[in-house]
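Before relying on records like the one below, remember that each one covers exactly one chain. Contacts with other chains, cofactors or solvent are not represented anywhere in the record.
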Amino acid sequence: MKIHLIVVGKTTDSRLDALIADYTSRLGHYIPFSIEVVPELKNAKSLSFEQQKEREGEQILRSLGEGDWLVLLDEGGQEFRSVEFSRYIDRRCASGARRLVFVVGGPYGFSKAVYERSREKISLSRMTFSHQMVRLFFVEQLYRAMTILRGEPYHHE
């Protein structure tokens, strides 16, 4: 199984980018992992929030393959503790899907079409974080899940 993260727009803070790259590199020791950046919309200010969600949604959906299991990182999703998330990843990896795809949407959320295509929603917290911070939090939690599954000492409980 491969795990893929789709994000809308580039990370503009080089410090966050470096941390994301570090965890991405670490993840390579456990599982094939990749990040895909869907370009930000041009002339977004001239579009309504709904139009922005629709166009971003079209780009997200074009990035998906037929056998992908799509999980949205969404404030209305299920919350996990880190150990629970590791068990979730373990179950998903054993499910037979070709790729497990997580998506961080744009600032206004996801289009109806993306919600309809998704299989699940996960929330990293009830708090609101910038979309750039969510990327870092997600890759760190995925790395933590891998170390928990291997019984490595990164996670303390």
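The longest strand covers residues 68-79.
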